[in-house]
Design brief:
Oligomer: single chain
Number of strands: 2
Strand content: under 5%
Helix content: over 70%
Largest sheet: 2 strands, antiparallel
Structural class: mainly alpha
């Protein structure tokens, strides 16, 4: 968009901003430990400066096998996503200033750079390569958790995303076979390519039933790793849905279900980071519903909400990560009353919850009220009811329950931690500035401000707050206690292995039986042969020379007779 001077003197004009982060991420593995923290902040700063200096339109083109590849193309929508990604990466770098290990720093920068490259990509090959390498880097962020649980969760994360990548590649190849073009296209769910496409992006965007990889893997990373993971993968998938499947009615239905179904799971979950993951899925469902509506107004609101979600949930995940960093746990059953010793973190968490809920002047308030009003006006009553229920539910579990469980209520005698480190508080303060900046935008544009939508939304939030307060006071909410939450992943973590174990048991027994049968037959055959021609028989015994000569003579006579007859 060329809204800033080019400090690189044009040397990087043909390079995607994401590549700066990728190269510096690789270099971070070779740097001294203190330099890695600086690199984690400096890399996205340089990427952002480079992005702001680039002109609109395609760039970074080269020819490969007679096909012109466009590594990036600057337009209004992807510019908004890319700027948000890089600003969020700067905030995350400040939050993770304490991190010195090579794996989380390098994979974090690599992941951020690939996600930025994906939203800026100018054609299908560039998008696919950046998008899939981002998934690989994200798996390493999960493994950086360094526990047996993070190892298993990272493997399941990798399998889910590899499957999505294969489906996405198949959709692109089928489309290229028909069109002969590698340009972005609008998918059609009536075609095989369209079905592969929605299946792939459904996994990436955590559609209902396809979502378990997210809630399984994200909470198992490091405190800072979960913060990074919360921003990029699912938001990049949302951007892909905007590009490839705008106006598909199926997305309206899927999005409405996606908004509502995580609410009960979030209320039952004990891990605060897992609760926020369910809230993230629910809020992304609102964006998916708007993409399904497909009007310019709905798509614009979807873009605004996707960007707003970055900073609202970034703030919430950072507050929870700070609690985990100080106390060693993010379990609601083990926390409470931390506002007394961590007041700044508690305040930031409350602001993050209000932003997610869509309170005016905060990030969510720039899009949620208008988007809900638009869905109410353009969709059927069932869709509208699910959306309203979901928005109220997100406010209840992500905006109210998480701060209440961690910072208020009964204090735990075994937890009296210090306030979050200074660099974490600075990062959370920067995220608040981001929330306020986005939140004030509608009020600066009288055409975008919708007083009716705001009133409707505030009524819903007030009712949700009343219900939550009453349910908490009367003991109707599930108790915060350590428990195993059964989600869809139970099918492949428990039922699947049980089925495989049963099938393996049957096949092993059949193989063993068949092997025993063959062994018995072969052993019997050799036993009989030994009895008939063993050394104890006349056939294999030691004969005299005369007997040998006699047999030679007999055989000679037989051969002579055969020859002359």
């Amino acid at each position: 968009m060329s809204i800033a001077p080019d400090i690189f003197g044009g040397l990087l004009n043909g390079i995607s901003p994401g590549l700066i982060l990728i190269v510096l991420g690789l270099a971070a593995t070779l740097m001294p430990r203190p330099a890695r923290a600086v690199t984690a902040v400096l890399a996205p700063v340089l990427g952002l400066i480079h992005l702001l200096a680039l002109p609109a339109g395609p760039g970074g083109t080269f020819v490969f096998m007679d096909v012109t590849i466009t590594t990036f193309s600057i337009a209004e929508t992807n510019f908004a996503f890319a700027v948000s990604f890089l600003v969020a990466a700067i905030v995350v770098g400040v939050f993770n200033w304490h991190e010195r290990a090579g794996l989380p720093v390098a994979s974090g920068l690599f992941y951020t750079g690939c996600a930025t490259g994906a939203v800026l990509a100018g054609d299908l090959p560039s998008f696919f390569v950046f998008f899939e390498i981002a998934s690989v880097a994200a798996a390493f962020l999960v493994w950086a958790g360094g526990t047996s649980r993070s190892l298993g969760a990272g493997m399941r994360f990798a399998v889910a995303n590899i499957l999505a990548g294969v489906l996405l590649l198949e959709a692109f190849l089928l489309t290229y076979k028909v069109t002969g073009s590698i340009a972005f296209f609008t998918g059609d769910l009536g075609t095989t390519a369209g079905l592969y496409l929605i299946a792939a992006l459904g996994i990436k965007a955590a559609f209902p039933v396809l979502h378990a990889w997210l809630t399984d893997a994200y909470p198992e990373s490091t405190p800072g790793g979960t913060v990074i993971l919360s921003v990029f993968s699912i938001t990049t998938a949302v951007y892909a849905l905007m590009i490839f499947l705008p106006g598909e009615y199926a997305l309206t239905v899927i999005g409405a279900v996606m908004i509502a179904f995580p609410i009960m799971l979030a209320l039952l979950a004990d891990d605060l980071r897992r609760i926020l993951c369910y809230g993230l899925i629910s809020q992304i469902g609102l964006v998916v519903t708007a993409i399904g509506i497909g009007t310019p107004t709905a798509l614009s609101a979807a873009t605004t909400l996707a960007v707003a979600n970055i900073f609202g949930f970034l703030l919430m995940f950072m507050a929870t990560g700070a609690v985990l960093f100080r106390t060693g746990t993010a379990a609601a059953s083990s926390l409470g009353g931390l506002a007394a010793t961590m007041p700044w973190t508690a305040g930031f968490a409350v602001i993050g919850g209000l932003s997610i809920a869509g309170l005016p002047i905060l990030a969510g308030g720039s899009a949620v009220p208008g988007l809900v009003f638009s869905i109410w006006a353009q969709s059927g009553p069932l869709i509208a009811a699910l959306v309203l229920f979901g928005v109220a539910g997100v406010w209840a579990h992500a905006g109210l329950r998480v701060p209440a469980a961690a910072f208020f209520g009964t204090a735990r005698a075994d937890h009296a931690p210090d306030e979050a480190p200074l660099h974490m508080r600075i990062a959370m303060g920067l995220a608040v500035i981001g929330c306020l900046t986005i939140g004030f935008m509608p009020y600066l544009d009288t055409l975008a401000f919708n007083a009716g939508a705001l009133v409707l939304h505030m009524q819903g939030l007030a009712f949700s707050l009343l219900v939550f307060a009453a349910a908490r006071a009367w003991g109707l909410l599930p108790k915060d206690e350590a428990s195993a939450l059964i989600d869809v992943d139970w099918l492949y973590r428990r039922v699947g292995p049980a089925i495989v174990s049963g099938v393996m048991g049957v096949t092993t027994a059949a193989y063993t039986g068949w092997q025993n049968f063959l062994n018995a037959r072969i052993t019997g055959l050799f036993t009989n042969m030994f009895k008939a021609a063993g050394p104890q028989t006349n056939i294999a015994g030691t004969w005299g020379t005369g007997i040998g000569v006699l047999w030679v003579s007999i055989l000679l006579v037989v051969m002579l007779l055969v020859s002359y007859i």
